[in-house]
Amino acid sequence: MSWIDDVRWDAQGLVPAIAQEWASGDVLMLAWMNREALQATVDSGQAVYYSRSRGRLWPKGEASGHVQRVHEIRLDCDQDVLLLKVTQLGHEPGIACHTGRHSCFYSVYENGVWRVLDPVLKDPSTIYT
């Protein structure tokens, strides 16, 4: 049995993967990985996810240039969630979200509404051409 078999894959062969910024500890995004994506991430040192909407591997930054250099991969206690500690590249400060923000977690719940906290760092229409 190999290290990749230690991961508890769901019925679709996927596992959630959280990307956390190495330097700041900011949670950047949540995506999905299959075995092939995890192996490609380990082999390349850059985050490769599985896009459920596209039905294929998705190297982070393939369209935007906002790649993630992976420093460390952790497996949670139940072996069903991965944590990738990354450096977000391609724009300073790093943009992980397709909305042009640093993090996908840019809204906070307050008194019955979601309030946007983080600014758009780059217009998404200029990122995805």
Would you give an account of this structure?
- This protein is mainly β.
- The chain has a single domain, classed as Roll (Ubiquitin-like (UB roll)).
- Helices cover about 10% and strands about 35% of the residues.
- The protein contains two helices and eight strands; from the N terminus they run E-E-H-E-E-E-E-E-E-H.
- The strands form three sheets. A four-stranded mixed β-sheet has the order 2-1-6-5, with helices on one face. Strands 3-4 form a two-stranded antiparallel sheet.
- The longest helix has 10 residues.
- It is globular.
- The mean pLDDT is about 95.
Please describe the topology of this protein.
Elements: E1 15-21, E2 27-33, H1 35-44, E3 48-51, E4 56-59, E5 68-75, E6 82-88, E7 107-110, E8 113-116, H2 124-127
Parallel strand pairs: 1-6
Antiparallel strand pairs: 1-2, 3-4, 5-6, 7-8
Which features characterize this protein?
Ubiquitin-like (UB roll), 4-stranded mixed sheet, globular, two-stranded antiparallel ribbon, single chain, mainly beta, 129 residues
As residue ranges, the low-confidence spans are: none
* Largest sheet properties: 4 strands, mixed
What Rg, in angstroms, do the CA atoms define? 15 Å
The global form is globular
Structural class: mainly beta
- Count of spatially separate domains: 1
The CATH topology corresponds to: Ubiquitin-like (UB roll)
Report the portion of residues in β strands: 25-35%
**Please, how many helices?**
2
Can you give the helix content as a percent range? 10-25%
**SSE string, helix = H, strand = E?**
EEHEEEEEEH
